[in-house]
Specification:
The structure is a single chain. The chain has 260 residues and is an alpha/beta fold. It has a single domain (6-186, 226-259), classed as Rossmann fold. Helices cover 50% and strands 13% of the residues. Helix 1 (15-26) crosses helix 8, helix 4 (104-132) packs parallel to helix 5 (153-172) and helix 6 (191-204) crosses helix 7. Bound molecules: nicotinamide-adenine-dinucleotide. The site of nicotinamide-adenine-dinucleotide has 29 residues, from helix 1, helix 4 and helix 6. Residues 10-11, 13-17, 34-37, 63-65, 90-93, 113-114, 140, 142, 185, 187-188, 190-193 line the site of nicotinamide-adenine-dinucleotide.
Amino acid sequence: MLKGKAAIVTGSTSGIGLGIAHALAAQGANLMLNGFGDAAEIEALRAGMAGQYGVTVLYDGADLSKTEACVALVRHTEAQLGRVDILVNNAGIQHVAPVQDFPPERWDAVIAINLSSAFHTIRAALPGMKARNWGRIINIASAHGLVASPNKSAYVAAKHGLLGLTKVVALENAETLVTCNAICPGWVLTPLVQRQIDARAATEGVTVDFAARELLSEKQPSKRFTTPEQIGELTVFLCSDGAGNMTGTSLPVDGGWTAQ
Ligand code: NAD
């Protein structure tokens, strides 16, 4: 379905981004991977995906906390893959602390990576998409883009902001075939969430399994984790013609979290 399209997935060396990258490559899209990790493992991942799906898979280790690196990621992709048709802004970090104890430098980092990087990549990729009159921008927000939880001020502010940015980009381009939508996952069992579960198990003196069940019970009525594959499948749908008139939306994949 996406044969010949060129896609960037930020933060695709792990978790949800990796699930999205697999889903897009399985549909024939050429990929620019991004994110941190061990160089040899990333190279094995890149070569493995290229072989598995028969598509071009490249890697750029841009640090998206930096404006110039966001722009360079888009330019590098345009140079190597010819253009950017699909932009998935997925890279994200978390920091958990009450506001009065929240380190200002962690606030700056969360806002830079979870929100500002999406502005910079969209700003850089839009002219090409508009010139070709086709594009799909998909921002990976969160249930925390729609509702709040204590101790996550920067994350909740960034994700609410990302939904606002999504709507503005959608409206500014509504008459073109460039769409911009957000996906709002609930709990997905990735390294980002595993760290929160491990911290909870240590603080409460309970097992990791018990802490994971507690985490789900508090927020996610299905009591099941969303999977990276499920987020990947929704991303593919948003890239399809079937989603051609969907823009400016925020789509929860959260087991009922935000229905409460
Ligand atoms: P993860 O930690 O598994 O992956 C994060 C990715 O972002 C990694 O590839 C990492 O290297 C990359 N990254 C981090 N800082 C970066 C930087 N400065 N520059 C470039 N890349 C950077 O986390 P995940 O759970 O897969 O999260 C992916 C996205 O999904 C995030 O935006 C997160 O907020 C969002 N999300 C996650 C959940 C969840 O339950 N896991 C729920 C809702 C939303």
